[in-house]
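Handout, section 4.2: multi-component inputs.
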Amino acid sequence: MTNKNILVLVSIGPGDLTMMTPTAQVALQSVDVVIGYAVYLDQVRPLLNESQEVVVSQLGSEVDRAEQAIALARAGRSVAMVSSGDIGIYAMAAPIFDVLRAQEWDGESPEVIVYPGVSAIQATAAKLGAPLGHDFCTISLSDLLTPWEVIERRVQAAAWGDFVIGFYNPRSKQRDWQLAKAQELLREHRSDDTPVAIARNVSRPDEQITLTTLGALDPTQVDMFTLVLVGNSQSYVLGDRMATPRGYMDKN
Amino acid sequence: MTNKNILVLVSIGPGDLTMMTPTAQVALQSVDVVIGYAVYLDQVRPLLNESQEVVVSQLGSEVDRAEQAIALARAGRSVAMVSSGDIGIYAMAAPIFDVLRAQEWDGESPEVIVYPGVSAIQATAAKLGAPLGHDFCTISLSDLLTPWEVIERRVQAAAWGDFVIGFYNPRSKQRDWQLAKAQELLREHRSDDTPVAIARNVSRPDEQITLTTLGALDPTQVDMFTLVLVGNSQSYVLGDRMATPRGYMDKN
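Output:
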């Protein structure tokens, strides 16, 4: 890439490189430095050449990682930050812009270009069939950066509004009660036989997708590598697939 | 493709073929018959070879088009249906499954495989920066298949829940009042200076993205080729970009 002082934010997509857009692949191959978590760097390594420097993101806050990438670009390098899924959805694009804002970025140096990609909810939906056939929302159940009261209100809103819901970060060892609470809130508005999919590591070799219902969902089956997809009032199961009708006029 | 009786649902992505995943491209090239709207067929034509039959979808209902594609697969062909964006999001995946359900599909014949892609909201978000940095929802303002009361409640829920909102099908010649009504509902919960982006034909040669605010949004500027993206209470504009912080703890 002839431009220096450039930071490209590159989405890998959900699984192997066959899900990564060609334009994102070209962008990644055109920079001096590639930065990201070790697991993401391993995914894209077949695309890289020997002249490219690879920097493993330090563990630490997202803000620290964003600052590191921006500093490299400000120092005159062309830099790609990589994330799995879509880098704009629960990934590094937002922390990057938050840091640029704090630094009173002039909008030009570094130049910032974002390459979108297929997010986990889309890969999961494709495997299931058509669960996102009507209006949907995504909710992260992580309360590390968002007060639980905000998340709880959002779950109630999604339930009341009859959105199909994709829960990101549904559960981890440290955050073990939030999904059960969300399930309880949803059951106030949506019937116990609402289809629910538990999707773990979709598009990876150890992919596992389990269909259950809102009433039968067992949160202890869910971990941090999982996306939980809850149907709306019209969603249905068809064999081992799940879909949501395009409209409300005809329930078939 | 050696399997017959197969229907693949193929996402083209938002613009040119550089945004279409390699796995979707391979799937498209492996079938006997490709079916879709003329404009989508024109987009993918560079990928096709002479032995592939191309069928222009008849105008008419989505159900009619789904039935036509399924009938071709049931007749022993391998068939690809193409849609721009992600075929699972406001496109043909849901009508296909609705028809399969009505036909009491056995889950095996035809085999159905869905290839996800980058949707319009993601392409728009990438151009803007990071507006989907926190929980978001998509809402179609088309009341052709969904009663307006359902849509209105959903807009209210999204407003109350402080979701970033992507409005698909925001306005057409026949549906000219829904976006103004949605704007009115949103203003009951969200401040007039909330950032709003009007994104027309994103990732196409005539792409146009305009930043405005919830108070200043002029619905007559919006047409059926447009996606309207409304920030949450924390979203901000930075030069000609828009972003939403990853959390609520720190407003920078």
